[in-house]
Amino acid sequence: MRKFSYLIIIAGVLVMLYPKASEWYNDRQQEKLLKEAEQAYSELAPSSELDLKKQYAEVTALLAEESAGDEPVQAAEPAEQEIEVGGKVTGIITIDKIDLKLPILEGATKANMKHAAAHMKETAPIGEIGNAAIAAHRSRTAGRLFNRLNEVKVGDTISVKTSDQEYKYEVYDISIVEPTDVSVLNGNKQDKILTLITCDPLVNPTHRLIIHAKAV
Questions:
Q1: Which of 50, 60, 124, 147 is the least buried, fewest Cβ under 10 Å from its Cβ?
Q2: Where are the beta strands (DSSP E) in the chain?
Q3: For the segment 164-186, what is each residue's pLDDT rounded down to a tens digit?
Q4: For 5-23, what is each residue's pLDDT tens digit?
Q5: How far is CA 53 from CA 3, 17, 63, 149, 158, in A?
Q6: Whole-prediction pTM
């Protein structure tokens, strides 16, 4: 009988505490979701000019570093090979003029740029108004990565496919600049610009080859 009484008391206490426990749990979940949302917003927020300069300096340093130690150990990936968008691959860049087809990874890091092109996440998203920058090494192996990017001419078409759609860009400007020239990442708040970045010349690079294209 006494045990039954204890059970009744415990059940009563639990009933009384349930609303508070439920409220505490909901508050915890809300706080967790808020932190995740704030982090996501922070990642999507435009980078400051200082952040962009710093990241661009790191990217151009990576390009030069890889070029200095590049070894022709791998043949070019066949242009017709299918690459799936999803997972780590956020897009596919294709330039028929030079038989180029590469996966695009988000973030121009050393690991991402080892075997793929990389979208600088500090720049505009691909396909949106602004300047979206994609960097890749200019491997000394013929046809690998951005090895043949110097063959691209004004008027050529660049295609970028994402999980949402396929974007077409037309090359309107080609330049060779100093590695510190961050102005190549400027946008005009009107056009959807794509900027391709790699090293120049192919051996012992001192400058950067820049391809500018606009969405058509």
A1: 50
A2: 89-95, 100-106, 117-119, 130-135, 157-161, 166-177, 192-200, 207-215
A3: 899 999 999 999 999 999 999 99
A4: 666 777 776 677 766 776 7
A5: 72, 55, 15, 24, 26
A6: 0.71
